[in-house]
Amino acid sequence: MDHLNPFWLIVFTGAISLVPVLLSVGTSMLKISIVLALIRQGLGTQSTPGPMVSMSLSLVLTLVVMGPTFEACFQALPSDFVTRIQNAPSKENIIRLAPAIEPWREFLRTHTSERETEALRQIRNSTELSFAEQILAFMLTELREGFTLGFLLLIPFLVIDLIVSQILVGLGLSMMSPTLISLPLKLLLFITSDAWLLIGRGLVQSYGVIAT
């Protein structure tokens, strides 16, 4: 790659700048980040764990889920990939690189609900979705599933808040903040149930990846 064509240098630079966006909308990071953010809100710990910790955990879980897909994309690159990017760009060279994203498209199709897919097909009046449309359908599916999981995980926190509020009212301590008592109880629930491990394992396994 000593004589890399300037065209490919521009392409690779643009691709690198789009990596954060693609990770956010076209991978499991979308659902995982939603679930972790809702859990933090449900705990009521304000900024603990901080946004950086939550995002880092989301990224690591995403790499675990997407690892096989990324590896398949890399293996799908043509054997003469290095030679082709050294040459002048051509339609043939670009088409030969297209199969490298097919494993990613297959991941999107596998984890996209038929309801979202059919809705976009009706909007487009087409039987086949483009890559951008497939990402949109995947995003809609991930958003729905992320909020659904978040709702289920927040139910125990809601029950604790209601019980604590009723007890305080019954004791005539309605002026006391329920958070002062409910927060330790929520943390105790998290510790005793090993919730972080269960949530991480459940998120990974929801994509068909075996987490031991």
Radius of gyration, in Å, reads 23 Å
Count of distinct strands? 0
How many H/I helical runs? Answer: 10
SSE topology string: HHHHHHHHHH
Low-confidence stretches: none
Please report which band the strand proportion falls in: under 5%, 5-15%, 15-25%, 25-35%, 35-45% or over 45%: under 5%
Largest sheet: none
Structural class: mainly alpha
Range of helix content: over 70%
So what's the overall shape?
elongated
Mean pLDDT: 82
Q: What is the first-to-last residue Cα distance?
A: 40 Å
Q: What features would you describe in this structure?
A:
The protein is mostly helical and 212 residues long. The protein is built from ten helices and no strands. It has helices at residues 6-26, 29-43, 51-75, 81-86, 91-97, 102-110, 114-124, 131-170, 179-193, 195-205. Helix 2 (29-43) runs parallel beside helix 8 (131-170) and helix 3 crosses helix 6.
Topology overview:
Layout: H1 6-26, H2 29-43, H3 51-75, H4 81-86, H5 91-97, H6 102-110, H7 114-124, H8 131-170, H9 179-193, H10 195-205
Helix pairs in contact: 2-3, 2-8, 3-6, 3-10, 8-9
Short descriptors:
single chain; 212 residues; mainly alpha; 10 helices; 0% strand; elongated
